[in-house]
Amino acid sequence: QVQLVESGGGLVQAGGSLRLSCAASGNIFSFNVMGWYRQAPGKQRELVTTITSGNITNYADSVKGRFTIARGNAKNTVHLQMNSLKPGDTAVYYCNAVKFVPGGPVNYWGQGTQVTVSS
Fold first, then answer.
1. Secondary structure class of 89 (helix, strand, coil)
2. In sequence order, what DSSP letters do the residues of 29-60 get, joined into one string?
3. CB atoms near residue 37 (< 10 Å)
4. Neighbouring-strand partners of residue 82
5. CB within 8 A of 34, min separation 6: which ones?
6. Which residue of 3, 14, 18, 101 has the fewest CB atoms within a 10 Å radius of its CB?
């Protein structure tokens, strides 16, 4: 059983920074892709950023230039540095990890961490 545990959420003023972390535990193996999604109240969950095992990154247009994803030194950890935060970034942020298997991709999700940006 694989678990993803997020940390680092909280309340910050607009223009501030937060750093989210996600660590996998349990039956650990190498994920092909790790990333972050977010869901604001009344909205659908949306992609924020992903990073592949080869360190190829992808960002939503709304966070480009402000957010940075990076793999941690420990296996199957990933960090999200969020700078110049805006009230529109307020959401629950979910860590995601994907393992490609013969039957198709298998997705794993964290429990979510709240990020609130005040104006």
1. helix
2. ---SEEEEEEE-TTS--EEEEEEETT--EEE-
3. 21
4. 18, 67
5. 22, 50, 51, 71, 76, 78, 95, 96, 97, 98
6. 101
